[in-house]
Please model this.
Amino acid sequence: MTQRARILAGIALAAVVLVADQASKYAILHILNLPQRGVVPVLPPALDFAMVWNHGVTFGLLQAGQGRGQLILAAVAVAVVVGLFVWLRRAESTLTACAIGAIAGGALGNVVDRARFGMVVDFIHVHWAGWDPFPFVFNVGDSAIVVGVAALLLEGLLPRPVGRLQAPPPKA
Model:
């Protein structure tokens, strides 16, 4: 895949993640009306939709409150996305480009929430029959960020293919 095609793949995935994230949040807020319903079982006993207004970053970490804290988190997220798109221009593999796109799209989805609501809409709660080893509520954008980071880590751990052997330069 050419460098241009990798860049376009990363940008396209960022756009798909952003749209999926915002569409899911629209459905949660305006169709399912989750803020009034609180919790809706989806796949008992493992998955619920649970309304959480997140003032922090992914999975509610680093709670920032409202006002200036939210502006700082949004500014940091935008700076990270700019850095990701700079990195995308140099991505050497399709996996790297798509992982960067997933992370950027998820981050942008959360920035849109901060701009619209002053906080992030989280609603996916995974558990098992009352046992909650992962007590966080998250959204589609958070999921894309985690999958993107995992893909980057996995790619970093995998051996790189050896290129074609080149003859040493001639001796002068």
In short: Confidence is low (pLDDT under 50) at residues 59-64. Residues 3-133+144-157 form one domain. The first strand starts at residue 39 and ends at 43.
